[in-house]
Amino acid sequence: MKQNRLIYVVDDETDICSLVCEELQRFGYETRAFTTGSRAARAIRERLPNLCILDLGLPDMDGLELVRQLCAHQGIGIMILSGRDSTPDRVLGLELGADDYITKPFEPRELVARANSLLRRLEQAEPGGSDNRRQASFADWTFDPGTLTLTRSGGASEVLSTAEAQLLSCLLRAPKQILSREQLLGDRVDPFDRSIDVRMSRIRKKIEPDPKNPSIIKTIYGAGYMLATDVRWSS
Question: Which residues contact 117 (CB under 8 A, 6 or more apart)?
């Protein structure tokens, strides 16, 4: 499958682009490198990648703006590779919809491992699998794993990022059970402790009547999170 997976690398440092692309190619991925956000955006309009690895410090635009553009395309993995290592930058990147955040300097093999993990989750979320034909109804919502879409009974809908959908799916498969952060992370290599909290906050903003006082997804302090409603799966 890897030879069919296309990864865009966007960084104004050509040495970084070459290093990342060469390492990914060693593991069978097809890659394209871009040194500006505008060139990457143009290429995305022509052909969608499976994963985009991008720096935030681009010469012609803020990388976060490119993250926003990528989030408009369902099914693209987004990995930020940046020298900005502050907590606010990490949180903002994840809040905008990035699936992972790696800081420079980085270990190339770790980057590949995290790309592998992210692409595996994307494959599991693709339409066609038996799990993705079943929709889950809970509270006032229905979740379609095949399209990563949440639909309210009144008709309003929300599209989740891949990382958000993975977290929600974990909770839907274990309603009224406490799941630890480790269980929710699954096979992801994610050293940023707040990543689960940030994504959970994004989900709550979409589904909770009052996100500041959540009634659907509850925080069990010191233990993890729990989906507090029943779940009905379509046959």
Answer: 187, 188, 189
